[in-house]
Every structure is written in C-alpha cells, then in structure tokens.
Amino acid sequence: MSLFARTALTLALAFLYAPILVLVAYSFNDSKLVTVWGGFSTRWYGVLFRDGPLIASALVSLKVAVLSAAIAGVLGTCAALALDRHGRFWGRGAYTGLLYAPMVMPEVITGLSLLLLFVGIGLDRGIATLVIAHATFATGFVAVVVGARLKGLDRSLEEAAADLGAGPARVFFGITLPLIAPSVAAGFLLAFTLSLDDLVIASFVSGPGATTLPMRIYSQVRLGVNPEINAASTLLIAAVGLVVLGASWLTGRKGAMAD
Is the pTM of this model over 0.85? Predict the structure, then answer.
C-alpha cells in the first residue's frame, strides 16, 4: 500500500472513530463537566445503573429489538426463499421493490407513514407498534443477507433428499435451513442492531411506557450532556459492537461452510 493510501485510510478512520473514542474516554471522567478531565473514575457507571428510568428504557429497547429481529428474521428468510426458489413470477419486480424500499426510504417518511397507519386503524402506540415498525424496515436487510447465501447454495443436496422421498417441509428443515442457518443468524443480529440504535422511527411510533434507550438519551442530551450519558452511550456502543462482531463471525463461518 502506498504512502498516500495509508495516509488517506488513517485520516478516514480518525474522522470516523475519533469522536467515539473521545466519548468512551470521557465516560470514565471523574469530573461532572464533560469537557474537563478530572481523573479516571467509574463513578458514572454506578450512577447509570441506579438510574431507574434509563434502565427501564434499556429493557424496552432490548425487548423490542429481540421481538422485531425474530419477526424480521422469519419474514426476511421467507422473502429470500420466495425470490430465489420460484424464479420469475408475475409481480416479481413490484414484490422486490416493495421488499427493499424501506432500506432506501428516509426514516422520517417510514416513521410518518407507519404513524398514520397506526392512527388510521386505531392501534394504540406502544411496544407492539415499535416491534411492527422495526420489523418492517429490518425485513429487507435480512432478505439481502439470506438471499446472498441462497444464491451460492449447492441445491444438489436438496434435490437428492427430494428424490429419496422427502417432502418440501422435510427438505427445508432438514437440509436447507441448517445450510443457511449462519446467514439467518447474521440477519437476526443485523436486525437486532438496527432496532437497538433506532431513534427516528421510534420517535414516531412509540407511546407512553415505550420509551427506548436512544430516545431517553436524546431527550436528556437536549437538556445538557453529562458523564452519565457518556457511560450509557459507551455501553450502547459496546453492545452494538459485540453484535456486529457476532454477525461478522457468523458470516465468515457461512463462507467457510460454503467452501
């Protein structure tokens, strides 16, 4: 790699990650002033774990993320199978466009349209609407991950099982699903991450008692940043990082199995 390329890469990484590193460093600041270093301390993590409303919001985020990721995992896998296994069918283009539209549509538009839908059908906003909304925009991401695995899947094993008398359901659960399991798990983790750090859509579709952690952090930041927010943000970064590493490991395992 040339000197110019190394310099450009270093500057790009610094631009992306230097603010995050500063936030993490100041979460261990002993001072109440976030811009003044007062020595190393973990006191704000203790304050964070005694903050009842913030912990309640974190539990809401985890509940919504798990439920919405599970729904998106099932729907996204079914959608990928439909696109890969059934070739060209009437309405395929429209189906594909509708599936992937939430991935490129501005989150403000998605949140507003879902809000109007829930109001129109008389569904009270809360945990249920959050789960539906997050599953809606995460399904397309799962379909992309699972679809990529299906395109490289050797179908000879499925055909052999069918020739030996196995029905479609037995072929899927006995052959196809174990082969695509790493990609399904990676899609689940991706949907989990998308739900965990969403703010815009959740702001539209949440209701009383359904305040997520990003919403809670944003509302507190508007009144002024304190080291407790830095600690909460650091834990959120760590959680998302672990999920991303898990998804990367599963994706790598998928590639090794394919080889």
Answer: no
